Structure formats: C-alpha cells, structure tokens
Amino acid sequence: MRSQVIFAGIIAMVGAALPALPAVADEVPAPLPSAAAEPTPTGTGVVPTDQFIVKFKDRDGIQSADRQASFGRAARAAGVPVQAVRTTATGEDVIKTERRLGTEEANQLVAAMSTDPNVEYAEPDVIMRTQETWFNDTYFTYQWGLAHNQGGILMPIAWDINQGQGSVVAVIDSGILSHSDLNANVLPGYDMISDSGVARDGNGRDSNPRDEGDATTAGQCAAGEPASSSSWHGTHVAGIIAAVAGNGKGVAGVAPKAKVVPVRAIGTCGGYASDIADSVIWAVGGTVPGVPANANPARTVNISIGTVATCPAVFQDALQVARDKGAVVVVAAGNEGIDASQASPANCQDVIAVGASTRTNTKAYYSNYGAAIDVTAPGGDMRYDVLDGIVSTLNNGTDRATTEDYYIKSGTSMAAPHVAGVAAMMLSELPALTPAAVEQKLKATASAPSCNVCGAGLINATGALRNVEEEALVITAGKPSIKGEPVVGRTVTVDYGNWTYNSLAQWSRQWKRNGIDIPSATDYSYTLAPEDLGTAITVTVTAKMNFTPTASATSVPTAAVKPGLLSAVEPTLSGSAYVGNALTVDPGTWGPEPVELSYQWYRAGTLIADATEPIYTPSDPDAGKTLTATVTGTKLAYGTVSKSTKPTAVVVTADKAVSPAPVVFAEAPYMVDDNYTVPATDGVDYQINGVTVPAGTYPARGQVKVTAMLHAGYALARDAAAQWITFFSTKGPEFVAPAVSPFKDVLTTQQFYKEMSWMADRKISTGWVEADKSVTYRPLAQINRDAMAAFLYRMAGSPEYTPPAQSPFKDVLTTQQFYKEMAWLAETGISSGWTENGARLYKPLTPINRDAMAAFLYRLANKPDYVAPPWLPFNDVSASQQFYKEMAWMYESGISSGWRDAYVSLYKPLSPVNRDAMAAFLYRMP
C-alpha cells in the first residue's frame, strides 16, 4: 500500500452515505419536502400608519384651542377623526387617526394640514421595520444553520450589510463539479494532486479541478476499510459557502456573491500533506514550482479535511505564507470526538479551527473539542432527523459524476464553510482586515458557548458584519475650534466640530505654538504658559481607525496670546495703630503661583519713603493720620496687579494704648447663682450683642460673650485681650436618683426615671397633687407651650423678673397661669411666638413639637456660637428645614439622638414632646 498522509474523515467519515433531498431536474419537477410557506421578507413597501407629525411655525404663540381647530379642519377634509397624543422632544405635535391610512388617504390628510398658514410642515409618522434579506431558493427553509433561530448564525440581517461581493474563497478539497446553483460563482481553480493514482484523471497536477470522484473498494486504502462511494465533498462545501441565492432553486450560500476558487487536493484514499500545503500557497497567490500563478488569489481559504496527527511542519510553513499574504484560513476541527489538539490541521497555528454545533446549538456528538477550538458553526446531527443536517449542492453519481442534485450531510466539514463564508463577507466589507482581526471579531461577536470546550461559541454573522461595518466607516474630519480667551494662565479647550466617526475611533490631540508641537500638550484642554505670550495657538485633532485612513484637522489659529491676569484678594492689616506698635500686611492668596510681591506703605495717602516691607512700625510723624499698605504682584508674561488695604484707625500716641480689664465669670453649682462681672476701663466700652453694658455684676445663662470696644483716640495695646467668652452649665451638680420615686405614676425602673426625679429635685416640675394627696408626673402626657415656659424659667433658676402690665401676646392674659414665665420667654428672646393678622400669639395650650423644642433649648443656652453641618444622620430632617441649625445643635450636643429602626434614623421633628422626654432633654443640657 502506498505511503500517504491521508486527511480522512472529512471525505468519507464527515458525510457518509446520507439521504438526499429530491432531485431538481428540469424535465421532472420534484415536489418540495414540505408545503410550508416561504418567509415573507420584511422592510419592503410602505406600511399604512395611523399617526402624523405636525410642526407649527410658532407653537408657543398658538393657543391649544387653535391647534385643535387646525386638527379638526384637516380631519374633516380627510374624512377621518384625529386627536393629538403627544409632543416630541423637538416640539412637533403627534396626532393619531381613528384608523390606519393608506398612501392616498395619508397624502390627503398631510395636504389638508399643510394648507394651514400656522403649519410649517406635516408628514406621516411612518412605520419602520427591521431589514432582513430572505431568499426564494427551493430549500432555503431547510437551511436552519443560516436562520434566526437557536442554532442559526443569523444570516438574513447580515445579508443586508454584505453578501461577499468581490471576495474570493479557496476551497481546498476534492475538487468541484458543474452545478447550475454554483457555476456562476466558480472561478478557475487547479488540480494540485501530484500522484496520478490518487488523482484518478490519468495524470498529475493540471489546471482542471474537476472532482473525479473518490470512491474506493473494500480494503483499497487500508485493510478492513469498507468500500465507499464518491463523496463529492468539495462541491458540497463550495455550495455552503457560495451557492447562488435568490434564483428560485436549490440553496443559498452563506456568501452568495463571493467567488470560489476550487483547489483539488483530495482524491482516492485522501491526499498528501505536501499537496495540500502547496494548495494553500497557490490559493493565496504564492509561488508553487511548475504551477502557473493563481489569477484570483484568495483572502479566505476553507480546509474541510484532516486527520489525527500533529501539525505537519510543511503545512505550518504553508499557513505562515497564507498569514503573510493576509489570508484567513478556516479549518474543520475533525469528527473523531476527541480533543482537537490531536487533530490536524485544527492543531496548527494561524488557523480558525471550527467545531460543529447542532440545530439546538449544542456540541455535535462527533465534533472534536478543547482549547484548540476557536468557534463553532452549524454542522448538524442527523441521528434522529435527516433534516437536522446541512443541505447543499452535490451530485447523484456513486463513482463517477452523473446528474447534479442537493444532499444533506453533517460534520465539521459543513461547519467550517459557514465560518469561511462569513469571513469572506467581512473581508468584502473591509478588505484591510487582517486574519487576526477577522478571528478576533468572529470570537467577540459569537454567542455564548454551549459548552466549556467549544471555543468562543456559535458565530453570529449579523454581529460580526455590524462590527466590521462600523469599523469600515471612513472618518470625515470636521473643523476643530478653540474655545476660551487666549490669555496666559487661562485654559483653552478644543471643540472637535462635526466629524463623521463611530465609537471605534481612537482620538488624539496635539496643541501647537506657531505651528510647532508643544511637548506633552495632548489633552482636551491646554493652559497657556508664559512662553505662549504673543504666539498663535492651534490644535490638531486626529481620529484613527485600525483599518481605514486616519483623518486629521487643525483649528484656525488664535489671536496672539495676551499677558495673563493675576488673581488677588484685598490685603489686610493686623496690629493696633499706635506709635511703636508693629503693623503687618497679610497679602492673601495670589495666583497662579509663584507671584513676586512687593510692598509700599502710605501715610494719609502719601508714600512713606523706604517703607517697603510687609511689617511697618508707626512713628511720631504717623500720629493723627491713617496708614495703608499697597501690595503689588508681578509675574513673567502676566500684567502687574496692585491691591491696597483698608486704612487703619487714626494712629494714636503710645500713651493712648490701653489693655481693657478682663471680664470675670463666676459659675455656681446652680444656674440661679451664675454671674459675670463687667469692669470699668478708661477709653473702653464693654458690649454684649452690640449693646453697651455698664460696669457691674449680672446673672449668667448659657453662653456669655463680652467684647471691648475702644473709644475714638484709643488703641488696643499689644497682646491685650478684647473679647471674653464662656459657657455656663445648666445642669448643676451630679445627681443620684432617689430609691423611692417622688411621683406615684413613675417607677424607679422606668425609662427617664432619673431625669424625671431630677426635675422634681430641682423643682423644675412639681407635678400634680391628686385627690388622694399623691403626686403624679404624667410622663406620657404631651407638654404644652405654657408649661414649657414654666419648665425653662425654673431651669434658669427662676430669676428675679417682673412681668409687664400688658401681655406681649394677644392670646395670653396677665392673670393666666404661667403668664410670668411666658412673658419672660418673650423678653429673653427664647420664644417670639407667631404673628397672625397683625397680632402676636403664643398659643399656650398647643403641644410643643420636637423642632420647636430644639429652638427653645438653643435659645435658653443663649444661642451659643455654632455652625451646623451640611447634613444630619436623620432621614426626616433637611438642611433647608426650619430650625435645622437648632436640631443639629441638639444632636451634636448629645441632647437628642433621635430614633433608629432597622433601616433609617429619624428625628421626628413634628412630633409632640412628652413630659418624660422633656425631662431627658433638660437633664442633658450642657
């Protein structure tokens, strides 16, 4: 037996004797296997619509009633009721008719609307549909591998993008036969079989790639092998790739406008690896000794043949030639049901190895698998239904060719040409694609693999072609422009202008100074530097795609860059203005840094010679005059800026510098005894909240802040204090709750017992004496505003106070319980009440809410200095809310922590305060 490398399996094993579809002969028309109707193409013809778009010339100036009247006139003219349904984002009105209108009726309605002088235009709201190409080929409905179904590769929409026009696919196989459904797409090929015994045509290599059949007798190729009929394998593969579509017969190829170059490398008992390697080289336009050059070099090569072996070196070398020529080589993974790493050429480099999938997109039982698999494609499984195989062109001959026909086969031999066809379409759409890019896009757009050894999954022709279509878009450059003022230190930005591009474009920018690249200036924006002064700035925008020409455009130059503008704030002076005391200038922040600063002092507006430092000590000539300082900033390429301080007070002599005597604060155990003493100092007034306070001792409550204000002609001595502040505690000594409750209705184990007993101990609340002489606190009762006044007055130590003879509130009588306490609240500013219809009200019997309670306690503490945070951890309190600051102070002072449930924190600002919670609030006061 001859020594031969036999790429078997794809010849006999891949598509053994399989049932054929009925032959299609001109003289004897055969019935279709099914009476099922062909799918109806979509996206053709005008679809009736029941919506119309109307643009009014001045919609805002037209009343709704006028628009409705316009619609009504058009409806009567067209004889169909209409109504407005919505307004588009760009201001057009969408109206709806009672029923869908055909072209003639729609034109009548549009014409009627257009006669209205207020209407700018009217048009049908046309109905659009997906665009898909379906063919009328006899067996197209049986080509499930091309369809939009679970196992199909989604060809119909892909065909709207490309059908392979201009692409050449080399099919290295058993040769090809004449077939009326294929001949139009077949180019001249070659018979590369060098052994006449294998070739079966009586000679070696020749220019006729006709398939002479590969039938064998039992044991002819190897002992024990059965006889086999001719497979006509190459014709079946070629038909899957490029059978003519839309001709009313047979099948449609994956790439029905591509051309096939048949290369015969398989004959009796298979084919030699050396012949197949030469076939690859010849197919892609390489040189093969003794063989004329291929006039139609292929960019796609399909090899649906193979064997179990390592990748032959001669074959790998041929694949490298193909890769160097830019050709995509698609190979069948093999049908042995083994790891594809054991099967050649699937285990070679520089190929797209294709596994077979079924109608349900599962791995075909026979298909090889593993890491060597790149993608899968329909190969079929005919064990249960012959129609689950792949139908394509064939011949009825069992040994030598007879009449053309169509047969169903299954195998990875059928899967590979599906991929080769899609690859041909991709290269037709974008010839600049590299083999690596074709493989990457096929994988990137594949559907999720049906198994973990099936590569990237089932190819998606629509996804791949859409990806390539986007990649193929030629960028059209717009006109970039520069936004911003050309001033040193300012930032200018680029506006790209209107480009034609897509999401795959890779953008870059280069800023230029007088046409020369500025190093590292490649961002969207550029901050003008000192070296740009007086120059013209441009920016070049470049959009690059991987496989289409790069586009660049440069902006119009800016005007000459102007000097920058320094930023500065008004400088300030510190120090007291008297002879012998140093004054210091704080220049504030200048920018952009660094800025060189210089100083000049002035006496009553007149320059002081040699006074050019940031510190100046007044001397005798300055007495009786004001002083100012001017700060001047300079920086290269920036304009000079000068800023002056406000004048000092009139400079006094050193003997007029005073140190105010300090205020003395005396905190006692209880608030009632807290006090502060204001001293007397010549030339000084002591003020609280802007009001002068005579020397003396005063009761204190919460925060007390006293400020010394100097009389005219005096200055504050160096290091002397001019303000005193302290906070007097409201709580008093540490309290231990008694073992026996002072209230009948308050248990010692009750929440807030300590705080309520403290209220009794401090006589802030005496409770009620009931009929049985017992004392109750009523802890869960809501506290009214009158009782609240009494609580706060007593909390403050019941200070000496005589209420006015006339009530400050219209709804509070002078004889009313707690009148004195409510009047004290008004006079101290703790409660201002409400003004309604010109009358001031207190609403004494209204329960006090938690937000108002916060305000009362904050004011009881004498409005301590406090800055509220921008937010609180309460879901029901916002920074814009009334009493937000006071509630924040309550929270941060630890007076109220609110409530916390499983999901949110709440303060419940509008909830009334109960008497037990009131006790807790007062006890926690700082």
Description of the structure:
The protein is 18% helix and 21% strand. The protein has 16 helices and 44 strands. The strands form 14 sheets. Strands 6-7-5-8-10-12-13 form a seven-stranded parallel β-sheet, sandwiched between helices. The radius of gyration is 48 Å and the shape is elongated. Residues 1-45 have low confidence and may be disordered.
How would the global form be characterised? elongated
> Main β-sheet, in a few words?
7 strands, parallel
- Overall average residue pLDDT: 90
Give me the count of strands: 44
Low-confidence stretches: 1-45
How would you classify the helix and strand content by structural class?
A: alpha+beta
Gyration radius over CA:
48 Å
N→C terminal distance: 109 Å
How are the strands of the biggest sheet laid out side by side? 6-7-5-8-10-12-13
**Which percent bin holds the helix content?**
10-25%
Number of helices: 16
Percentage of residues in strands = 15-25%
Task: List its salient traits.
926 residues, alpha+beta, seven-stranded parallel sheet, four-stranded antiparallel sheet, 16 helices
Short description:
This protein is an alpha+beta fold and 926 residues long. Helices cover 18% and strands 21% of the residues.
SSE inventory with pairings:
Layout: E1 49-56, H1 64-78, E2 82-87, E3 93-101, H2 103-114, E4 119-124, H3 155-161, E5 168-173, E6 190-191, H4 196-199, H5 233-242, E7 259-264, H6 273-283, E8 300-303, E9 307-308, H7 313-324, E10 328-332, E11 343-344, E12 352-357, E13 375-378, E14 390-395, E15 404-409, H8 412-429, H9 435-444, H10 461-472, E16 481-483, E17 491-495, E18 506-513, E19 516-517, E20 525-527, E21 537-544, E22 551-554, E23 572-574, E24 583-586, E25 596-603, E26 606-607, E27 615-616, E28 627-634, E29 641-644, E30 657-658, E31 664-666, E32 675-678, E33 684-688, E34 691-692, E35 696-699, E36 703-710, E37 715-716, E38 723-727, H11 753-761, E39 768-769, E40 775-776, H12 785-795, H13 819-828, E41 834-836, E42 839-841, H14 850-860, H15 884-892, E43 899-900, E44 905-906, H16 915-923
Helix pairs in contact: 1-2, 3-10, 5-8, 6-7, 8-10, 11-16, 12-13, 14-15
